[in-house]
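thought: fold this chain, then report.
action: predict
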Amino acid sequence: MKRVLVIEDEIIKYMEIKKALEFNGIREIQMAEEQESAWEEMEKAEEQGLQFDLIVTDMHYSLKKGEAPNPDAGFILLDEMEKRGYKIPVIICSSLNFREPRALGCVWYHKNANLEFDFKDVLQRLK
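observation:
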């Protein structure tokens, strides 16, 4: 596991996710606050031959800068990844405990969560 893109619009949640990923040995972590920026980062990485190895996404965030958060943003991301042919594994990290078959897994984000170990459990599915 080399490069991870985290799509999250709340900085505190992003920092907690980043800490959990670093606990699991992942050091190259990039943030996108909305889907438009995420696509720009994925396209730029692909052009440079440095594709992301994993995407961690919230499910409720803006599609474009300046827009209101979209409650279906995570599903839109998964749909668009299929359309564009992206085969990057996705982990959903949301305050709602989703079951989405297209995702590698879901890490439930809540106040009593142990994100380090919750991510470890899902990341083991990559091996």
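thought: worth noting. The longest strand covers residues 3-7.
final: tokens above.
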